[in-house]
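DEPOSITED CHAIN:
***
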Amino acid sequence: MDYQETLTYLYNSAPLFQQVGSAAYKEGLENTYTLDEYFGHPHRRFRTIHIAGTNGKGSCSHTLAAILQSAGYRVGLYTSPHLVDFRERIRINGTPVSQQFVIEFVEKHRHFFEPLHPSFFELTTAMAFLYFAEQAVDIAVIEVGLGGRLDCTNIIQPDLSLITNISFDHVQFLGNTLAQIAGEKAGIIKPHTPVVIGETTPETKPVFLDKALSVDAPIIFAEEEHLLYNASHEANGNYLYQTADYADLKGELGGLCQEKNTNTLLSALRQLKQTGYRFSETDVRNGFAHVCELTGLQGRWQRLANHPTVICDTGHNVGGIRYIAEQLSRQHYDRLRIVIGMVNDKDIRGVLALLPTDASYYFTQASVKRALPAEEVQKQASAFGLKGNAYPNVKIALKEALAQSGPQDLIFIGGSSFIVADLLATCYTS
């Protein structure tokens, strides 16, 4: 098989949550432990940092990887979902896993894993851990796929656990209260291992405290340390942070959510230093300022064009959209145009309720089975005073938005990671 044939095999034999949703979800770690034993426990051959949370995992994971990479470490980075190419999920110092490794992994080991019927994420996690071990990374930053307690990444014994925040997402698996969801995320807290919590609510904080106490894990609440003093924007749109440890810290990632992410990261960096990680102030500054170049991160308030301004963001749940809506309200433009689509297992009404009514909407759908039909998004949006037409795909929707835009307009594309994925794959290919 070549690379594309291998991907087709993986998608067909191990259903991809990204494509089909709950049908691809497998609760429990039995397959994970079986795969881990078969491959010789590869995750034990490198140090790890484990990151969970409803929103902000990707930004925090990539920024930490960029900082450690700047410090001279050989850094593995495991994230999900991918936007354009599967290989985005597994990187070392920003370079994606080779096509050849993916091909050989399947060819060499399909005889073992086929009878197990693993999920796509179980198989991908095993692939990532094996690749990091064989490539002798020093550290791997591991992002939780879904939840935490029963996530197949949760077999690692990290140097630091980090939980960004808790919001409503994947409630069919994680619970329909913030406390229940927090309980699942808290499952990554390990005995005697420090954990940094980015944001809490009155419902979630006791859950984290109880779990940390039960396993004697030092717990740090970033909100209480409050190492970020102030955040402002430079002329180029990048952040300029004033912090307890780094004055005039420049951040490349945009979007209001990055203020919370940065405060969380500052606490995490202090803990990593106490754990024995070596990095300088210069390394921190370089990581924050060049995270996209160093790690390949895309889709976080990403500016794609000017005149008109075109911005995309992968925020897709109520917590993420709340930040996006506030960010949009702070922009300057003649007319706001929003290209939006969603998947059918999210809180669609909760998201639509947050969006501005004075924008022109271009309702569309992603090229995944979970996509909510554009006409259905349009129908539900009308109940919230959101007006616009439906388009069969992102490319056509954006083309229409561009055709109707003046040079001072702002076009925002989002609502789903898959909308952004289609956008980058069909409209802004590199």
Summary: The chain is about 40% helix and 15% strand. Residues 334 and 409 are 5 Å apart (CA to CA). The domain at 3-295 is CATH 3.40.1190.10 (UDP-N-acetylmuramoyl-L-alanine:D-glutamate ligase). The radius of gyration is 21 Å.
